[in-house]
Amino acid sequence: MSRLQVVSGKGGTGKTTVAAALALALATEGKRTLLVEVEGRQGIAQLFETEALPYEERKIAVASGGGEVHALAIDAERALLDYLQMFYKLGSAGRALKKIGAIDFATTIAPGVRDVLLTGKACEAVRRRDKQGRFVYDYVVMDAPPTGRITRFLNVNDEVAGLARIGPIHNQAQAVMRVLKSPETAVHLVTLLEEMPVQETADGIAELKAAGLRIGNVIVNMVRPHLLDEAAVRAAAGDRRKEVAKALASTGVAAPTKLVGPLLEQAAEHAQRVELEREQRAVLTKLGLPTYELPLIGEGMDLAGLYRLAGDLRQLGEAFA
Q: What share of the chain is helix, strand, coil (3-state, %, to 5)?
């Protein structure tokens, strides 16, 4: 069972929305899910219509069946202070370093260390148990960086190899990678039925496989409904101006020729989009991964829409287990 669910995708595909909906979907029937943000954008807070997330785990939603969704916005500087206290007992000294800017320097000049801190916090939540020995969270869902950076972000062991070959940082990276490369972790990629996101998804999958990271599902987001059936789509691709004008006239529409142009133009655009989407679906099929589609929420994404997407994901059941 994949207890750490990592969600990535090209910018603009709605990966944060999918991550939030997935956290809700997994937190059913009394389950507890932690939704983790690592990019500092506060996108989770906006989706759940709550105040900005602090550097602490906070309950932000109740799912179907009484499950709970908690959220955490991981801050690299605060995570480094925790790290210094945990391994070096430098609580007060760490705070002093922060005052003189050393903490910010460390997390900026050494991005590999920064990623160890961010992923390490999520992996710690995956492993954490309560006093009875039970996992504190049934699932941890990470709203991860975009597809173009996801492999480097997750493959932290390689990133820190040149910085620390022994010692606590090296050991922390190794512990993180044991979680990230285990069956406990699955990386889901969010895309749209458009050429650039699909191509970036294909590239991301190749990089993740090469790094030995386990890929879960491809999630096609914001799928628009087909307004025409297959026969109408084929007809819209041809020159049917005279036939359409005749059909409109037979229904009693005045001045049908003025309507023919705009109607055919819209139908042709729809037919073109359907064909492009068909091509991109074929590309995704060749990737050989489970692929699922989520509908476009036409009225815009709000909390109600988020719960609706969670319901759609919940119906997939074992796909995300």
A: 55, 15, 30
**Identity of residue 34:** L
Strand partners of residue 218: 189, 291
- Residue 71's SS3 state is strand
* Distance, CA of 177 to CA of 238 (rounded, Å): 55
CA distance 159 to 105: 17
Give tens-digit pLDDT for 141-170: 999 999 999 999 998 766 665 555 656 667
Number of other CB atoms surrounding residue 245 within 10 Å: 20
CB 147 within 8 Å of CB 9? yes
pTM of the model: 0.83
**Per-position b or e across 187-213, b if 16+ CB within 10 A of its CB:** bbbbbbbbeebbebbbebbebbeebeb
Alpha-helical segments (H) within 110-146: 111-127
Q: Give the whole-angstrom CA distance, residue 207 versus residue 285.
A: 18
Cα 286 to Cα 271: distance, rounded to the nearest angstrom: 23
